[in-house]
Structures are given as C-alpha cells and as structure tokens.
Specification:
The structure is a single chain. By secondary structure, the chain is mainly alpha-helical. It is built from 26 helices and no strands. 39% of the residues are buried.
C-alpha cells in the first residue's frame, strides 16, 4: 500500500517511539503515521502498529490509507467482520480503491471462499495499472484450491513481467511439476530467457526440466549457462555434479561438489554425495572421511548414518556396523530404518535377543512390513521361544492372511510344542499355497518338508 519511505521517514519511527516514553501526543502528518504503522506491521509488531493507527485516526479521521491500515490489522487479528465494515465504508467513498479490493479478497480467502476471492481480484484488475500483485494473488488462490492449470496461467503472467521474482518462479515450476507439463515448461522458461538471458535461476530450473525429459545433454548445458551467468551460484554446481555423478563421471562430479562447498556453508547432503562418488571409484578412505564429515555437519541426517553402517556391512564388519548403528539410535530412536539395520546386524551376529528387540521396535513404530514380522518370528524360533513365536505369527497373519511362509513358521512352533492338531491346521494352509512357499524355508527346516 505504501512505497518504501525508509530513508525519508526513519526519523518518524524515532519520533513515535520517543512519544511512547512520554505523556505527550506528538503531531504526525498522514504520510508519517502511515509509514510508522506499516513499518510495525511489516515487522510483526502489531500492538505498536495499532497505537500508530489509533493516533492517525484521531489526527486524520478522513484519511483512507490509515483506515486501510486499520482494516489490515483487523484482518491479521482475524477480526474479519469489523474489517469488512471498514472496507464497505471505504468502498462508498472510493469505489475503485485497489487496496480495498485486495483486502476484501484476503478476507474471502480466510473464510475459504476462494472462488469469490478470485472474482473480487478479477474486478480489481479493471482498476489496477500495476497488475503483478493482483495476478500473483489470483494465482495463489487457484493454487490453494488445487487448480494448477489456472494457477500456472497467472504465475506465467507474473514471471513474464517480473523474471527475477524467485518465489513466483518456484510456484510456476511447482504447477508444471504437478501437471507434468515439462515440455511446455521448457518453452515458458526459454521464453523468459529470451527477455532475460542472464537469469541464472531460470537456467537452473530449465536444466531440471530437461532432466525430467531425460535430455541430459541439454540439462548439462543449462547448468553450465547458469554458472556462466553467476560463477558463484552454488546450486548450479550441485545440480551439475549430480548429473555428472549420474553419468558415472565421478571425478568431475567430486570437483563440482567440492567447489560448491567453497561458496556456501558446508552441507551434509553434498558431503554424502562426495562420499558416494569416492565409493564408486574405490577410494575407501576418502569415502569414509566424507561419510563422517556429513554426519558431523548434521548428526540428524539419516541417509549418512545409513550409508556409513552399510559401508561396514558390505565388509562383513558387523561389530563396526553395530557401533555406528547404536550411535545413530542414540540420536534418533524413532527412525525405523535404524532399527531395521540394528535387527539385521544382530541377526548376522547371532545375537537373537537384540535382533528381536530391533524387529519389535520396527513394528512398534507402525511399520507393518511382512519382512519385519517374519524376521521377528525367526528370532523367536532361533531362541526356541515357540509359544511367543506362534502368537506373533498369528498377529502377522491378521495383516498378511495368505502368506504360506507365516503358516509354515507357526506350524513349526506348534510342532515343537507338541500341538499336532494346530500344526496340521497351519500346514494345510501351506499345502493350499505350496507354490508361494519360499524354497529357503525348506532348506532351513528340512524335517517339515515330509509333512507337507
């Protein structure tokens, strides 16, 4: 609503705050108090903004801009009915007031009357010389109701007029992604680049669209152009590195990842990517170094912990894997993938009590995968916990009723408990689905094969 008067009116803020410390009321001209109120609104200091508007109303009771500021504050406080009354009064005095239309549309949006909000904003377009703000608001309303096609139209109008507005560009790309209109997206971004050929962010997003179209050569060119436009553009180096990594060009990928680290704060993601590249060229010490750098940079970055644990597992160094798995669990005991690793490692170490704990925690976290249920039963069988084994097996069967492996394992538990009738019931289920039975089960329990 107001232009940026920060230089001309900065003294007005000091004057206002000085007044608050005294019992005197200073006089402010209309523009001064408008700036003061807007300043506090912008910084979220609503109580101070209200005080400024109150003084403005007393000193300039007929000023429309101060009334608009008052209604804006009321909208922020969700006092929509009172704000509407003020806007209705303004509409009688200035029927074509652009800001009043926008605030009315904001109220309708807050009331979830998005179609009416859009209608109001379309009326607003009739009176608006600078249409960008209104187009943007219409686009956001369409985005809110999931109409990506219409939202895309208005975001496109915005970006063609303001190609450097990053938020608009991201919203436009979001619509393109949801509609999967990648070819049309390429045309739109190329059109922007004809007007603004040195826009590094548009080149970057163009490269990402080419990736979705599996046009890797054009994607690489786009990332290179982004770097040419701004050789300090970290995101372009990362995207280029990811593409090089995908094309098995690991050394050049490492070079681009490492250069990106010199431009911005270190990133756990980038460190992990570098580790993955070193893994592919069998540089184990460097691979390990970057896994640890990634974890040190962000101890909550799960992918790095999992990669480091997997590193030890691949070398059959189960004790080493367990050390890091335990460290990861200390940081986040609610992440199921850590418990899966914990169960797997302990199973390899024949530590069945610990493995059982792992599977139990996976299920406890709501991950009802057949593999976890089956693994839990296996650990119970390995400990000769036959009764608990069939009880867990029955719980699993409620989720997976037609899996003969579960019937087989339950039957095994009943066999060892001497309950032959119950065993026969479950073996009968196995016989009905014998083609689905895992061959490995018969390798582990050959004495049951004769029974089926």
């Amino acid at each position: 609503m107001l232009e940026d008067y920060s230089q001309g009116f900065s003294s007005s803020i000091r004057k206002f705050e000085e007044m608050l410390k005294t019992n005197y009321t200073y006089f402010f001209d209309a523009q001064e108090i408008e700036y003061v109120a807007q300043h506090y609104i912008d910084f979220g200091k609503i109580n101070l903004a209200k005080k400024a508007v109150k003084i403005g109303n007393k000193q300039h009771p007929a000023n429309i801009n101060i009334l608009l500021l008052k209604s804006e504050i009321l909208i922020l406080e969700d006092k929509l009915e009172t704000a509407n009354e003020i806007l209705a009064f303004i509409h009688e005095i200035e029927p074509n007031n652009l800001d009043a239309y926008i605030q009315k549309a904001t109220i309708l949006s807050k009331l979830k009357k998005h179609k009416k909000s859009i209608e109001t904003l379309n009326e607003c377009l009739i009176y608006s010389e600078y249409k960008f703000e209104v187009w943007h608001l219409i686009a956001l309303e369409f985005l809110t109701i999931g109409n990506f096609q219409k939202a895309m139209i208005y975001f496109r109008l915005c970006i063609e007029n303001e190609p450097n507005d990053h938020q608009v560009l991201y919203n436009l790309i979001y619509c393109i992604d949801n509609l999967k209109l990648f070819k049309e997206g390429v045309k739109i971004l190329r059109g922007i680049l004809e007007k603004d050929p040195y826009n590094e962010l548009v080149w970057l997003e163009l490269g990402k669209l080419y990736l979705k179209l599996k046009n890797l050569s054009q994607a690489l060119k786009s990332f290179d152009y982004a770097i040419l436009c701004d050789d300090q553009f970290s995101a372009a180096y990362v995207e280029k590195a990811k593409l090089l990594q995908k094309n098995n060009n690991y050394l050049e990928a490492i070079e681009n990842y490492q250069f990106s680290l010199t431009l911005e704060s270190p990133s756990a993601f980038v460190y992990l990517r570098i580790a993955e590249c070193f893994k592919m060229i069998s540089k184990e010490k460097l691979e390990m170094k970057y896994y640890k750098l990634s974890i040190k940079e962000d101890p909550n970055y799960e992918e790095s912990w999992l990669a480091l644990i997997e590193y030890y597992l691949n070398k059959n160094n189960f004790k080493g894997a367990l050390i890091y798995c335990n460290k990861a669990l200390k940081i986040n005991e609610y992440y199921p993938e850590y418990w899966k690793m914990y169960a797997k490692i302990n199973k390899c170490l024949n530590r069945f009590v610990a493995a059982e704990e792992g599977f139990k925690n996976i299920i406890g976290l709501g991950i009802d995968e057949l593999r976890s249920w089956s693994g839990w039963i296996d650990t119970l069988i390995s400990q000769n916990k036959w009764e608990k084994g069939y009880l867990i097996g029955k719980k699993a069967k409620k989720l997976y009723p037609n899996v003969p492996d579960l019937d087989f394992k339950i039957a095994l538990c009943y066999l060892n408990l001497g309950k032959k009738n119950e065993m026969e019931f479950y073996l009968d289920n196995v016989r009905k689905n014998i083609n689905l039975l895992s061959p490995k089960l018969l390798e582990f329990y050959p004495h049951l094969e004769v029974l089926i």
